[in-house]
Design brief:
The chain has 14 helices and no strands. With 328 residues, the chain is an all-alpha fold. It has one domain. The longest helix has 25 residues. Bound molecules: zinc ion (2 copies). One zinc ion binds next to loops.
Length: 328
């Protein structure tokens, strides 16, 4: 498939240039677009499998993979941003850093509180998946956790009432920025971090009796997909988008246009297909990112106001009188 160029868009004024670079951006070489996902995915899985056969320290392997993935993807973002206005800047990086630190601290607290630092504490814990071979236990763990995560994520966006409101206001921190790039992935409210990391990931893995090997492969896939799905580069995964949530899918989840902002799954996109929330337009980019009505929310740089968001009532905060569900 030939890549659309800026001149194509200009030559066809009536053609809605689906992936117009009119806002600035660059077309990466073919190899970057089509080979980044398969090469990095294979590298991640390959190293995790080698760690298992060689009995390496699993936590160190996960850290090494995280650093490698971030380094490669952030470099590509600076070389070939799909839209320059979505690029990470020093200002946006320091904004995100506060959320990342707050989220990271929450993860550490809840890991300790529930004793769920999974790789360490899953050692020796027995459950339904413990005796399963890896080729069954990893997909099973992914399915269970992804289903729970899909549910809470969809509720965060679509559920009305007090619970829906609270979930959305805890999740909104991830959607307030009008950009999407790799290091935005961990930027979230600690309450959302607790729900995603503690309630719907570590707790099920623990009770399923996932072995450290299962957790290593599970975490390798989930972390890699979460990072690459936020990458501000024209990375494509072709037919794999019907299995995994790639860059082309999650970018639309951040759209400010509610008809596009679907794709609630974080790792397994076929859950969106099954539940009717799949939005895939190959070669197309969302227009504006963020929330529908930014004026109804604190600015994402206003860290403490965003932290207080889950606890504020709309009238007191002076937010829009539009129901929260309509603002997402
Ligand atoms: Zn969301
Ligand atoms: Zn996201």
């Amino acid at each position: 498939m030939r890549t659309l160029t800026r001149s194509d868009a200009m030559a066809k004024p009536n053609h809605q240039p689906k992936r117009s670079w009119k806002f600035g951006g660059s077309n990466p070489p073919w190899a970057v677009t089509w080979l980044t996902w398969p090469i990095l995915f294979t590298f991640n899985i390959g190293l995790a499998l080698r760690a298992i056969t060689q009995q390496w320290n699993y936590s160190s392997v996960l850290t090494a993979l995280l650093i490698t993935d971030v380094a490669v993807l952030v470099t590509l973002e600076f070389l070939f941003p799909v839209r320059r206005q979505w690029k990470m800047t020093w200002r946006s990086f320091f904004r995100d850093l506060k959320y990342i630190v707050a989220g990271g601290a929450t993860f550490a607290v809840f890991d300790g509180l529930f004793g769920l630092a999974s790789i360490r504490l899953n050692t020796g814990h027995v459950g339904p998946l413990t005796d399963w071979p890896l080729y069954l236990s990893v997909p099973a763990a992914l399915l269970v956790v992804e289903f729970l995560n899909y549910s809470q994520h969809r509720w965060s966006h679509e559920l009305n009432g007090a619970l829906g409101n609270f979930l959305w206001r805890s999740h909104a921190a991830h959607h307030l920025p009008e950009q999407v790039y790799v290091l935005m992935h961990p930027a979230s409210h600690p309450i959302n971090g607790f729900i995603v990391r503690g309630l719907v990931t570590l707790l099920p893995l623990y009770y399923l009796g996932a072995t450290p090997e299962t957790v290593l492969l599970f975490s390798t896939i989930v972390t890699f997909q979460a990072l690459i799905s936020h990458c501000n580069v024209d990375i494509r995964a072709g037919w794999f988008n019907y299995v995994f949530v790639g860059t082309e899918l999650h970018r639309f989840h951040h759209s400010a246009n509610l008809s596009e902002s679907k794709n609630y799954a974080v790792t397994l996109s076929f859950l969106d297909i099954i539940f009717g929330t799949f939005y895939y337009r190959p070669g197309s980019l969302p227009g504006r990112l963020g929330v529908v009505d930014p004026s109804a929310y604190p600015n994402s740089t206003d860290f403490w106001k965003v932290m207080m968001l889950p606890f504020e009532r709309e009238v007191e905060q002076g937010f829009s009188s539009v129901p929260a569900a309509d603002l997402r």
